[in-house]
Model the fold of this input.
Amino acid sequence: MSVRTDVINLSVNINGDNARNQLNDLRKKAADLSYELKNGVTKGTQEYINKAAELKDVKSQMDSLKQSIGLTSLTQKELNEEVKKLSALRGSVTPFTEEWKIYNEAAPESNCPPVRG
Done:
């Protein structure tokens, strides 16, 4: 009896794959712009102002794209930051108010243990 081994390259297209690639491109662009602002451009010049505005625009595009994709688009580091942010926000408001309920409902999505009550 012989054993046969096949190597298969499998490409799976998931609904958010295109959006995830776009998000990664925006992350790279934001990192490049941040680097240029810190190292390549003199503060106060028109070029600096334009790059800062472009970075702000890229970040807003990233935020809207993250909202449309959901938490699945976030990296592990960003997920950890989201958990910390939600925990802090939930802990800073009066329990069982409307605002608290919003943060408490968002908590399970980010793996932050919700408070039952």
User: Anything to note?
Assistant: The chain has two domains: 15-73, 74-117.
